[in-house]
Amino acid sequence: MASDRLIWLIHNDSSGSNDREALDGLGRACEDRGLRIAWRTSFPTEELPTPAMLDAAGADLVAIFAGDGTVNAALDALSGWSGAVLVLPGGTMNLLYHRLFGEQDMDQVLDAVAAARVHRRRPGIIASPLGNAYADLLAGPGTSWNEVREAMRKVDVASVASETRAAFSETLGGDPVRCQEPPLGRVEGYPMLQLQPYDQHIAVKAYHAETAERFVEQLVSLVNRDFRSGPYDDLGTTDRLVLAGVAREGLDLLLDGEPATTRAACEFVLARCQVDLLASVADD
To answer: Which UniProt keywords apply (predicted)?
Structure first.
């Protein structure tokens, strides 16, 4: 890419990873590589830019320095745009970033962008009536562990304790989630299912937390800021999946970390991202 490339930056002003020091550091890193931040959107304080706004400004590259939830909202807002989007690691998990760039750090990615060693890619995503998931989708009573993770992120010791108790109770006593179509895994369901989009399929994992040993493993995962690394079963792959609760059919969900709820069974299908993302990793 040519030098002095202009960037429209989207960041999340409520994210602990997006403090002034981090944003200033990003600005310097871009300037050093001839990538100049010409426009900024601080989300959610400001509305996300639309394709029409970007085209009117003459912008053709958007950088998103935020977590997966903000990335999700921004990519939905940019659907149909002809420009390119650079996802940067501005959150806790940064799952989509790692899908696009592997284990490269942000400096390496910015080097690659400046040297035109990246390509445009429209990865597979999960589409549903409740919204899209670009990184992953979690379903079931085990999603209550997300509240523990959020309390840990905020270093709120009291909330960590109370949310942990609530998560134990919900995971054990909540309505399990099951794969209704196709019938993958056990009919009695699971505390949590994870759907991960790839270009050719959706991978399905089932998480457990029925025993004290499993709970300890889950807590270790939480301490490491990754509740998804707990014990699970690989249920295989599909391009379409209907999930439902065992007793009441409704579901508690996390779409790229953002909560959603449905009162009925819900269909999830493999779809294609509707805007070009910059990447250095080949299609998965």
So the answer is: Kinase, Transferase
What is the rounded end-to-end Cα distance, in angstroms, of the chain? 24
Domains of the chain in start order, with CATH, are: 5-117 (3.40.50.10330), 132-272 (2.60.200.40)
Q: What is the DSSP string of the chain?
A: --SSEEEEEEEETT-GGG-HHHHHHHHHHHHTTTEEEEEEEEETTSPPPPHHHHHHHT--EEEEEE-HHHHHHHHHHTTT-SSEEEEEE-SSS-HHHHHHHTT--HHHHHHHHHTT--EEE--EEEEETTEEESS-EEESGGGGHHHHHHHHHTT-HHHHHHHHHHHHHHHHHSPPEEEEES--S-TT-BSEEEEEE-SS-EEEEEE---SHHHHHHHHHHHHTT-GGGS-EEEEEEESEEEEEESSS--EEEEETTEEEEESS-EEEEEEE-SSEEEESSPP-
197-215: pLDDT as tens digits: 999 999 999 987 665 566 5
Write down the pTM of the prediction.
Answer: 0.85
| Lookup result for tokens 């944003």 | 23
Sign of CA dihedral 178, 181, 185, 188: positive
